[in-house]
Amino acid sequence: MDWGMRNRLARVIKPQTGRTVMLAIDHGYFQGPTTGLEQPAGTISPLVPYADALMLTRGVLRTSVDPGADVPIVLRVSGGSSILKELSNEDITTSMEEAIRLNVAAVTLSIFVGAEHEKQTLVSLSKLVNEGERYGIPVLAVTAVGREMARDARYLGLACRIAAELGAHFVKTYYCEDFEQVVGGCPVPLVMAGGKKIEELEALKLSYNAIQEGASGVDMGRTIFQSEHPTAMIQAVRAVVHENAKPEEAFDLFNSLAGAKSGV
Ligand code: 5RP
Q1: Of all residues in the chain, what percent are helix, strand and coil, respectively (each to 5)?
Q2: Least confident of 65-74, 86-95, 145-154, 182-191
Q3: Which of 49, 201, 248, 260 shows a CA-CA span of 20 to 30 A to 1?
Q4: Is 172 tagged catalytic?
Q5: How far apart are CA 185 and CA 178, in angstroms?
Q6: What is the domain partition of the chain in residue ranges?
């Protein structure tokens, strides 16, 4: 890995802890105005100081993030399908030239292992890695899970390993039972995906387990920005990820920050 690639990766996965708290706000690229992101700028700006990186599309980056913000960008460069159609039918939608112009730290796309358009998404990953290697831009592969697919260690382990073998520099996947097997079979850093909004303590427990079982951080969206207290939640997640806080300790932090904010 050359210096530029390593430097960009270190902007996302912080060398001080070897971990990251990424904020995922790319939902609109296939599901439109997701709850909490109808007007992205207002949701994003209070969270930026606590995010190690933002994962988003060029459209939201251009329109809704202050160019003066000191936050690394992981740019989603895949798309082409919507929730109304077959989700795996994605292609690369944003060029590497554009990613460089936007000064991103990394690019990302989804792979759909076992889905109808599996090959198309795996070839896209490979092509993106070829370009990333040329320009020193790391590639994050997201192991998207189709509607009928099991989120178990066998399936997620397969998807993560394929992503790493095709050259992804880091991988995002869901937490599951025997998660350490998924981490163990993946030779590149792995960040835990969030998923649908769940209770704060539950999300902190999941994050804690993932970190203790070897994840290099989390990349969460709805669990943070759909919380009643998003800035409190992201700070609680940071405590788990960067300070090894126990879930209950982090939940206490969440409650005290949330209480302070609402004047309770
Ligand atoms: C889609 C993604 C999105 O970034 C992800 O869905 C957003 O995060 P969350 O599910 O935590 O709201 O990777 O495959």
Answers
A1: 45, 15, 40
A2: 145-154
A3: 49
A4: yes
A5: 12
A6: 3-222
Q: Which residues contact 103 (CB under 8 A, 6 or more apart)?
A: 73
Which token pair is 107?
A: 């690019």
Ligand 1 within 6 A of CB of 26 = yes
What distance in angstroms lies between residue 192's CA and the mean position of ligand 1's atoms? 10
Q: Which residues pair with 193 in a beta bridge?
A: 219
Homologous superfamily of domain range 3-222: Aldolase class I (3.20.20.70)
| Integer Cα distance of 246 and 232 in angstroms | 16
Q: pLDDT tens digits, residue range 98-121?
A: 999 999 999 999 999 999 999 999
**Distance (Å, whole) CA 156 – CA 114:** 11
SS3 76: strand
Q: Span 232-239, mean pLDDT?
A: 98
- Rg of the chain in Å (alpha carbons): 17
For the record, the structure tokens of 117 come out as 């358009």
pTM value is 0.96
